[in-house]
Amino acid sequence: MTDVNVSGLSIGILGGTGDQGKGLARRFALAGHPVLIGSRSAGRAQEAAETIGEGARGAANADVAKEADLVIVAVPYEGHKALLESLRAELAGKIVVDCVNPLGFDKQGAYALPVEEGSAAQQAAAVLPDSRVVAAFHHVSAVVLLDPAVDKVDLDVLVLGDDREATETVQALAAVIPGVRGVYGGRLRNAHQVEAFTANLISINRRYKAHAGLRITDI
Amino acid sequence: MTDVNVSGLSIGILGGTGDQGKGLARRFALAGHPVLIGSRSAGRAQEAAETIGEGARGAANADVAKEADLVIVAVPYEGHKALLESLRAELAGKIVVDCVNPLGFDKQGAYALPVEEGSAAQQAAAVLPDSRVVAAFHHVSAVVLLDPAVDKVDLDVLVLGDDREATETVQALAAVIPGVRGVYGGRLRNAHQVEAFTANLISINRRYKAHAGLRITDI
Description:
The structure is a homodimer of 219-residue chains. Chain A has nine helices and eleven strands. Chain A is an alpha/beta fold and 219 residues long. Chain A has one domain (11-208): Rossmann fold (3-Layer(aba) Sandwich). Chain A has a six-stranded parallel beta sheet with strand order 3-2-1-4-5-8, with helices on both faces. Chain A has a two-stranded antiparallel ribbon with strand order 6-7. In chain A, α1 links the parallel β1 and β2 (35-39). The relative contact order of chain A is 0.16. Chain A binds chain B through residues 108-112, 154-155, 158, 160, 183-187, 189-190, 192-194, 196-197, 199-204, 207-208, 210-219, and chain B through 108-112, 154-155, 158, 160, 183-187, 189-190, 192-194, 196-197, 199-200, 202-204, 207-208, 210-219. β11 (213-217) of chain A pairs antiparallel with β11 (213-217) of chain B. Chains A, B: Keywords: Oxidoreductase. Chains A, B: Residues 11-102 form the Pyrroline-5-carboxylate reductase catalytic N-terminal domain.
């Protein structure tokens, strides 16, 4: 969907010890990218990197934010704003990819949490005025990404943002995962519903016993 | 995705003179359903029914609401609440399918409007406590539904609601359109993001010159 060249780009993943972050780390490392896993604890980040192998390294979030070319934010929503506020200087000038889904859970399943800024991605953009914030990778299934038996992932990654060069870079990055297309999905102001749609995918997974994803038709 | 039998079910479409309503009317009539197109003006409804043919009839919204077995709400969001309030008695006991997308438009494209009740579908449920409100058909392309050259529509219709028999009926109804699957998409409290996602599809259509729709993978 775009011909931007992302080969050699180093990818940092804040919150890379969680399932979503670890799954993405594994796929980017398999595609030949230098991958840096970040965590509050450098030790836990290194342990996660070892389980992934493929040359992935682990470090404290701040070191990852400083070193990586492009930084993915895969932390739980609760800690999202405070973490980004603490890394404003390290993330200045960089493409920051937010894949956080602000969701609540109760007996009836998942539901979208209200976010004062509109969405986690808009919260990131508000906190990081000197970064190039893009929203993407909301609907990836950690189970699928981490499964060595899955060599092709049946998914379109929706990429949202107001900076065209940045969104095209992230579209190209999504496409390094075999089977995945990176599809432009609109401006950041339309990120809320993409984040919240993860609640619907969770409902679909429950009903159909699946690891559901999205494909966009006619493109 | 469900084996509910909907053959012979008569379908009323409030706001059936708009493109989305007319497109759905055409496909349900082609599938052999008695179709009743509703409008504020019975005359305009009859004109729309004639352009569709296939036995479709037109009448005033209130008559359609009273007569049809199942009623689809395809009016512009602006008139949504007032229309439903005026038809509470006629719609009591029936499955009411809301496919309204509360969107605003400006130079940068479409965006989701805030809805006090959470979503148009939840607004319908609040206004119609005696009806069985289901949300569906948000992402259908009127152009595709009305195109006689398109015999198969490449789309999953997400069907949301809290009444399982009602959602399964609407899933089966969606599936009478060739190519379409009716997929359960969660409870009504998760309807907002499905309605709002139409703004993203509009962005995708602009970028890729397409009539984009959704497919859910792994089900």
